[in-house]
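Retro notes (design track)

What went well: tokenization of the new backbones is finally stable.
What didn't: we kept losing track of which sequence belonged to which structure.
Fix going forward: every design gets posted as structure first, then sequence, in one message. First example under the new rule, 335 residues:
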């Protein structure tokens, strides 16, 4: 079994007393910054003027430009959207790195796909929480945590590994467990997970189930509750105790249906499609396609997003959720 690091295996916290610049104050940024501060670390925020700049100020942080924050920090954690990192890195971060500093990521994308090439005299590592930023913060305030991966890409000082563990401890992840990986493994498994299972797989499965019921003449509201709303309750059971815990809670009829129908839905063909998705990730086809799409102004991204927001499951869902005030999105979206 892989070695898992917990609070007691961190040792001396080498980042205590060092200045940590959190670049970006979005989903991950606000969570890392607040958890580190609560754990006694010295944090400065680097972000462009705007919404998150104001939010970070309101939350009581010292907020600077990215260049200023990078300049004064010993550790620079880049928590900008992946596709925007290379530009900000080149113009504002790289010119402000000193030998012995640490450059940190929460995803290996830009290092692994060679969009960022750091100087040789800085430590480069990643600490990647395995969960959305808002949960990194919420679980921390509840005394729990989101687990994380860490990996060292470049060890200029001989202490990169200790720094990575210290950082993971600082954001609270050692409460849940921290695993060592490589930039390659983190990048490829993270992209595969979100594409095949967590985001792409899950949304496609939910939509296909909803459409099947509606096309067969059932009420869209019933189909919404059945295929989308209830999924959360099932996922909570999976999270708490794996497949067996979920199957313990459902009826035997549902469990038998799970056994006979599941393999008819996710077939060898589906698995072959997953292997193709994985190959595209490993060969860089996905990454280079996404970089090109972003550089072209995201024509396909925006068109698909617009179409998805108008899908019947979204229209019905918005109406039904408005009647359930206890079901609240974290962020109010304009659609
Ligand atoms: P977000 O999109 O939530 O955060 C974006 C932040 O970057 C905002 O504060 C935004 O400011 C700022 N920003 C955007 N462009 C610029 C710019 N040109 N100059 C300065 N600041 C800018 O990012 P995430 O938290 O989702 O992702 C950050 C990293 O964490 C990525 O590497 C991602 O792969 C990784 N990660 C993300 C997870 C998640 O839960 N989302 C999970 C695990 C890893 P403004 O408000 O002005 O737009
Ligand atoms: Mg990801
Ligand atoms: Mg049922």
């Amino acid at each position: 079994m892989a070695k898992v690091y917990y609070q007691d295996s961190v040792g001396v916290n080498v980042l205590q007393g060092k200045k940590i610049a959190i670049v970006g104050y979005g989903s991950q940024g606000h969570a890392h910054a607040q958890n580190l501060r609560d754990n006694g670390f010295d944090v400065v925020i680097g972000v462009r003027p705007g919404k998150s700049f104001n939010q970070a100020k309101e939350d009581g942080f010292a907020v600077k430009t990215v260049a200023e924050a990078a300049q004064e920090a010993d550790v620079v954690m880049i928590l900008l959207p992946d596709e925007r990192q290379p530009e900000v890195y080149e113009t504002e971060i790289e010119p402000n790195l000193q030998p012995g500093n640490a450059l940190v990521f929460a995803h290996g994308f830009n290092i692994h796909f060679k969009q960022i090439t750091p100087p040789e005299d800085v430590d480069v590592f990643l600490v990647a929480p395995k969960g959305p930023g808002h949960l990194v913060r919420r679980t921390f305030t509840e005394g729990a945590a989101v687990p994380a991966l860490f990996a060292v890409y470049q060890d200029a000082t001989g202490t990169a590994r200790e720094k990575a563990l210290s950082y993971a401890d600082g954001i609270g992840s050692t409460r849940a467990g921290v695993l060592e990986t490589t930039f390659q493994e983190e990048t490829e498994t993270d992209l595969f997970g979100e594409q095949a299972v967590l985001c792409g797989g899950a949304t496609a499965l939910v939509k296909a189930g909803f459409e099947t019921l509606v096309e067969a003449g059932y009420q869209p509201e019933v189909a919404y509750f059945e295929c989308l709303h209830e999924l959360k309750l099932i996922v909570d059971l999976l999270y708490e105790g794996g497949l067996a815990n979920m199957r313990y809670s459902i009826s035997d009829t549902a469990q038998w249906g799970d056994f006979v129908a599941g393999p008819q839905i996710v077939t060898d063909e589906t698995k072959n499609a997953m292997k193709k998705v994985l190959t595209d990730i490993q060969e860089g086809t996905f990454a280079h396609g996404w970089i090109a799409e972003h550089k072209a102004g995201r024509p396909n991204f925006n068109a698909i997003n617009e179409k998805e927001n108008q899908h019947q499951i979204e229209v019905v869902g918005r109406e039904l959720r408005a009647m359930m005030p206890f079901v609240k999105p974290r962020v109010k979206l304009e659609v």
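Added context from the reviewer: The radius of gyration is 22 Å.
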